[in-house]
Design brief:
Elements (H helix, E strand, L loop, with lengths): L11 E3 L2 E3 L6 E10 L2 H9 L23 E9 L10 E4 L2 E2 L5 H4 L10 E2 L11 E5 L3 E3 L6 H4 L2 H13 L6 E5 L3 H12 L4 E5 L3 H10 L3 E3 L9 E6 L4 H10 E9 L11 H6 L3 E4 L5 H12 L10 E5 L3 H5 L7 E5 L4
Parallel strand pairs: 10-11, 10-13, 11-12, 13-14, 14-15, 16-17
Antiparallel strand pairs: 1-2, 3-4, 3-8, 3-17, 4-5, 5-9, 6-7
């Protein structure tokens, strides 16, 4: 896990680590930290899932690819035409949609079938340095703690979900209160939900949910009694989808936000009889990413304390093969 995308131009070395030169509009980030996401673990333990095994139609990349899409870094060098400056602390938007397909042209670039995703179809942030498009970076203040700064991406996922459903004044159940679920709980509470019910099988996972804005918490057995207007599944586990459906009232909406690497059984008779709306939701647009960064920078999001484990980058391969419990794990390059 060293420097990532290479150019044909001459490369330089910083602290004896090879660093690629930025092209026009690009910047080189010295990675400060990259968080381990559940999708990264899925790639290692159950993949390939999104990492292409044949060359990607746009990036031309295929496995092996450096993982990491939740990251923050400091600009180490800039290419011509970039508006960023050396020393700027930024989070790079990990998506590069094509900009030409129907979804991109109608404001749904998160659904672009040919998007290039850092850490999935192009090298990501579990490295010392990374070349990124400077125009797709958002600034993060130096006063924002690392464990908050790396969370721009998952909060962008949560904010995008709230563009798919209106939670204001509604009773909302959030199923799964891991790292993403906590982001969702906090975003839902901030958006004005009348009640936020956190659902998880682990009491340790539920504990920080109240600090994030949950008004109640319970285990999956109690889901049918919630009668939620909207249930958001944020666990990515097969059983969580059934729990979310059970938590929804008649005529309610279930938003499937978790990443599911295998087909999941759904009781369609129950969905039909109770007229449940199933709403898929994937990733985020740049507007969501920028909004998440602004809110974190202003202290409006990522305000809740959560368990964090910081480890050196060299421990990444081992950590990706093991469960992380409820702690958010962050890899820190030794050169950072």
């Amino acid at each position: 896990m060293k420097a990532v995308r290479w150019h044909a131009r001459d490369d330089v070395r910083v602290d004896d680590v090879p660093v690629p030169m930025p092209g026009h509009g690009e910047v080189v980030l010295r990675i400060e930290g990259a968080a381990i996401c559940g999708t990264d673990v899925d790639e290692v333990r159950a993949g390939p899932v999104t990492v292409p095994v044949r060359p990607h139609p746009v990036s031309g990349r295929s496995a092996p690819i450096t993982l990491g899409h939740e990251m923050v870094g400091v600009v180490a060098s800039v290419g011509s035409g970039s508006t960023l400056a050396v020393g700027d602390r930024v989070a790079p938007w990990p998506s590069r949609p094509c900009g030409r397909c129907r979804d991109c042209l109608t404001g749904h670039e998160n659904r672009c079938p040919d998007t290039v995703a850092l850490g999935m179809s192009a090298d990501g942030g579990m490295a010392d340095f990374l070349v990124v498009d400077g125009a797709r970076c958002v600034r993060i203040g130096t006063g924002v703690a690392l464990e908050r700064a790396v969370l721009v991406e998952p909060y962008a996922v949560a904010l995008h979900a709230l563009r798919r459903v209106d939670v204001a004044g509604r009773r909302v159940a959030v199923v799964g209160t891991g790292s993403l679920g906590l982001c969702v709980v906090e975003a839902v509470a901030r958006a004005g939900a009348s009640e936020v019910v956190a659902v998880d099988r682990s009491s340790d996972a539920l504990e920080p949910a109240s600090g994030a804005g949950a008004t109640a918490s319970m285990t999956p057995d109690g889901a049918p009694a919630i009668d939620a207007d909207i249930a958001i599944e944020a666990a990515g586990a097969d059983a969580a989808v059934a729990v979310a459906i059970a938590a929804a009232r008649r005529g309610g909406t279930v938003v499937v936000l978790g990443g599911h690497v295998r087909p999941t059984a759904v009781d369609l008779l129950d969905v039909t009889v109770r007229e449940i709306v199933l709403q898929g939701c994937v990733s985020h647009a740049f507007t969501d990413f920028a909004a998440a960064a602004r809110a974190i920078d202003a202290g409006e999001l990522a305000a809740v304390e959560r368990p964090v484990e910081v480890a050196p980058l060299r421990d990444g391969p081992a950590l990706l093969r093991t469960g992380g419990g409820h702690a958010k794990r962050i890899l820190v390059p030794e050169a950072a």
